[in-house]
């Protein structure tokens, strides 16, 4: 008995398989109830979800809109100021310059005061030379 | 309280120390004495030496030293050479003023014409005055070259 030739060639069978797979996928995606379709976004935008609960201010015992609560308190200023001062370089602090100025002024005062005291302890100024004299000598002889 | 007493003590000490150095002045007049005007004219340099309770050395004003006024060589200062003042912190002991006069600007014994000295006692007085008289003139060392008519 003669063998019968196959109805479809191998190439046509592969093509048919591919066509079948593609058709199946298209049906899956296009069908609304298919699991391959993205779930419907039922979440509402946040902005439009709910309006804030605006309670009249007169009934708000915490008075959240009282500006005095929001105003900076002296303590806040002091803390901020201290923080700013802590961050200053030493030469930017007035205490540094006050101390430096005090030391310099004290040094100058000590120098001239000490000089004057030393001069005073050593007799002070010699009296001026009488112009009628032929000369003045001794201590302070440059008269 | 302790600091206050310490400060007062220091101040008192400073004031006490301040009293240690007080100027005392000796105003000495120099008289040529036996030195005649022609002999005095020979002098070129006069020198002051102080010894004793204090010491000092200085030339008296001289035109040879380009001083503005001159007592040696003689200016218009005879028979009294002039008065000088000597200042010292000495307040005790004796202090001697010695004046030497030379016929040359070099101070050597060969040129020494005359000298005089005065010794005084330093004390609490602020100013003392004295008179120093020059001694005899050595005509041998200091001949007068002026020829009189």
Tag the structure with descriptive keywords:
heterodimer; A: 143 residues; mainly alpha; B: mainly beta; Immunoglobulin-like; 14% helix; elongated
| Count of individual beta strands of chain A | 1
The secondary-structure element order of chain A is HHHHE
Report the total helices of chain B.
2
Q: Give the tally of structural domains of chain B.
A: 1
**Structural class given helices, strands, pairing of chain A?**
mainly alpha
Task: Supply Rg of chain B.
Answer: 21 Å
Elements of chain B, N to C (H/E): HEHEEEEEE
Distance between the termini of chain B: 89 Å
Assess the beta-strand content of chain B as a share of residues.
35-45%
> In the CATH hierarchy, what is the architecture of chain B at level 2?
Sandwich
- Helix/strand/pairing class of chain B, anyone? mainly beta
The gross shape of chain B turns out to be elongated
Envelope shape of chain A: elongated
Largest beta sheet of chain A, briefly?
Answer: none
Radius of gyration based on Cα positions of chain A: 52 Å
Largest sheet of chain B: 4 strands, antiparallel
CA(first)-CA(last) distance of chain A: 161 Å
Overall CATH class of chain B: Mainly Beta
Could you give the count of β-strands of chain B? 7
What does this structure look like?
- The complex is a heterodimer of chains A (143) and B (149).
- Chain A is 46% helix and 3% strand.
- Chain A contains 4 helices and 1 strand, in the order ααααβ.
- Chain A has helices at 10-30, 67-70, 74-86, 94-121, and one strand at 135-138.
- Chain A is elongated and about 145 Å long.
- Chain B has 149 residues and is mainly beta.
- Chain B has one domain: Immunoglobulin-like.
- In chain B, the strands form 2 sheets. A 4-stranded antiparallel sheet of chain B has the order 3-2-5-6, with no helix packed on it. Chain B has a 3-stranded mixed sheet with strand order 4-1-7, with no helix packed on it.
- Chain B is elongated, with a radius of gyration of 21 Å.
- The termini of chain B are far apart.
- In chain B, 28% of the residues are buried.
- Chain A binds chain B through residues 117, 120-124, 126-127, 129-130, 132-141, and chain B through 14, 17-18, 20-23, 25, 27, 30, 48, 50, 54, 56, 58, 60-61, 69, 71, 77, 81-89.
